Amino acid sequence: MKNHRIKLGDKVKCLITGYVGIVVARVEFLNGCIQYSVASKVNPKDNKLPMEGEPSIDEISLKVLKRKVILSKEYEDEEKDKPKVKLKIKKEVKSTGGPTRFMGSMRGY
Q: For the residues 97-106, what does the mean pLDDT come to?
C-alpha cells in the first residue's frame, strides 16, 4: 500500500476555498492526480451542510489540520505493521550473603 500524505479520517482544510472537513474517500487517477472527498459538519444554526454533497479536492490544495480525528482502516493497518518491541529482561544473580567455601584459605587461616 502506498504511503499517502493525507489519510482517511484526517481533518483537512482547502487552502483555496477554506472548506474544512474530514477526509472520507480518496480517488487516484491514471495520470497520478489524487483527489479526496471531504465531509463537513452540519451547521448547527440552520441544520444544513455548507455545500451539497461531498466535494472532491485535489491533494495539493489540502492542508492537514489534525490527524486521526476518525480512526480509519489506514491507521489500523499502520498500527499492525509497526514492529512489536519485546524487552529482554536480564536476570541479575545476586549473592545470598552466606559464607563461601574458600573464605578460610583466602584470609590465611
A: 59
